[in-house]
């Protein structure tokens, strides 16, 4: 059974393994100090939030998210990072993490939860198509380098 709870101080090592795997999947380099900084921000709050999915007490999945203002509604939640260890996939961890973020979004009186993924991330999109609606938007990023 999957248990979802906020990240705790003693999750640091397991969180970093999963965070690094997530960044590797998206071919994004982050210096060691970057992981230290993100962990500090997740633990301090209140702008970033993190949850862990646990299977038999072991952290097997993580999600990072944030709430922000929105021009046309009271606000929105952006689910920025979601990753489940390959060995633990198929047990419902990703769905449980998404549903927990959705619940927190609703509890804040917000009606928009959204996230991005790569177009070719077929495995994740199989789940996403079950729990959310693809509305056809494409993301562009302006490069400052």
Layout of SSEs?
Layout lengths: L1 E5 L5 H14 L6 H13 L4 E7 L2 E13 L2 E12 L8 H15 L5 E2 L7 H10 L14
Shape, per Cα inertia axes: globular
Mean pLDDT value = 95
Helices and strands, in order, run as EHHEEEHEH
- According to CATH, the fold-level topology is Aminopeptidase
Radius of gyration: 15 Å
How many separate structural domains?
1
Instruction: For the record, give the distance between the C-alpha atoms at the N and C termini, rounded to a whole number.
Output: 45 Å
Secondary structure tally: strands? 5
Structural class: alpha+beta
Give the helix tally. 4
Can you identify the CATH class? Alpha Beta
Catalogue the unreliable spans: none
Share of helical residues: 25-40%
Strand order of the largest sheet: 1-2-3-4-5
CATH architecture: 3-Layer(aba) Sandwich
Protein name: Acetyltransferase (GNAT) family protein
Keywords: Acyltransferase, Transferase
GO molecular function: acyltransferase activity, transferring groups other than amino-acyl groups
Pfam family, one: Acetyltransf_1
Give an account of the 3D structure.
GO terms for molecular function: acyltransferase activity, transferring groups other than amino-acyl groups. This protein has 145 residues and is of the alpha+beta class. The chain has a single domain (2-131), classed as Gcn5-related N-acetyltransferase (GNAT) (Aminopeptidase, 3-Layer(aba) Sandwich). Helix content is 36%, strand content 27%. It has 4 helices and 5 strands. Strands 1-2-3-4-5 form a 5-stranded mixed sheet, with helices on both faces. The longest helix is centred in the last third of the chain and has 15 residues, at 93-107. The model has no long low-confidence stretch (mean pLDDT 95).
């Amino acid at each position: 059974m999957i248990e979802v709870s906020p990240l705790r101080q003693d999750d640091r090592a397991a969180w970093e393994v999963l965070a690094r795997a997530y960044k590797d999947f998206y071919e994004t380099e982050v210096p060691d100090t970057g992981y230290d900084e993100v962990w500090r921000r997740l633990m301090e709050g209140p702008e970033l939030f993190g949850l862990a999915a646990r299977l038999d007490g072991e952290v097997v999945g993580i999600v990072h998210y944030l709430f922000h203002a929105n021009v046309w509604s009271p606000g929105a939640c952006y689910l920025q990072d979601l990753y489940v260890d390959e060995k633990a996939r198929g047990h419902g961890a990703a769905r449980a993490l998404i549903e927990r973020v959705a619940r927190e979004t609703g509890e804040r009186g917000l009606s928009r939860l959204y996230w991005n993924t790569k177009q070719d991330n077929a495995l994740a999109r199989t789940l996403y198509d079950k729990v959310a609606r693809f509305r056809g938007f494409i993301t562009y990023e302006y490069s400052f380098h």
